[in-house]
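My main concern about presentation is that the manuscript never shows what a single data entry looks like. For the editor and my fellow referees, an illustration may be useful. For illustration, here is how one protein appears when written out as sequence plus structure tokens:

***
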Amino acid sequence: MEFRQLEYVAAVAETGGFSRAAQRCFVSQSAISHQVAALERELAVELFDRSQRRVRLTEAGETFLPYARDLLALRDDAIAATAPRPDRVRIAANMSFARAALAAVSGVRDANPDAEIDFLIKPFAQRIDAVASGEADLALIRGTVDRDGLYLDPLWVDQPVIAFSSRHPLAAGGQAPTPADLAPYPLLLPPADRQVLLHRLVDRAFDRADVEVTYGPEIREGHSVAFDLINRPDSWTLLYEDPLQPGISCRRSLSFTLPVSAVLRDDAAPNQLVAELLTELSHGFRRS
């Protein structure tokens, strides 16, 4: 069964004859007759009653026609969904990028009111896969990635926040604590396999300061970081955003910085909306 056969069946049914259907489809009458007959042999039924001057659907044809139209509509929907759309951009990210992304999207939408910009929530590896497969036009990541067919466009430098209980000994100071200040206190982080980037960032900062980090219990998945910090008032952690929760103090330190980049495909077609979005995300640095 081929889509062109379904198109020919629909055309014959709607025009009432093979000749008129051929004119609509810009093919010869014999081509339409041949393809419809081939489909009838495959289905082992006759779809049309050819005994009258006007060709009519048989009972089997009446049953088949709605399915044929549905299949043709699904084909058209699939083509439309996967076709490049210059008025649509899909961003793969996680919720820690929501504030920056929403501000950038708002700026782009002001200039392009008909634009459709989707925010796809995905973990790191799935973001990279989404760009590679074409599901997303770009992904926002911290750190780096090395994958054939993809490249990084630097956007900004992120400063994760040092968070601790308001009762922590370092909370009284107005300055951001250094790795040396933090070294005596237990660090609470998720396991390295769930948050490898923060683990690497901590290791790098403490190595540069020539001090050793003190690790506390791991933060369990689905567990509230704020509760852990309050229950262990001598502990601290790193977060991508200030949680703005009572009892929690946060500081930003130049000891802990991460580059934020957009991941894009090498072979992606030029898209003005993507270029404008990258400009907004990087605070005005224009892409050509």
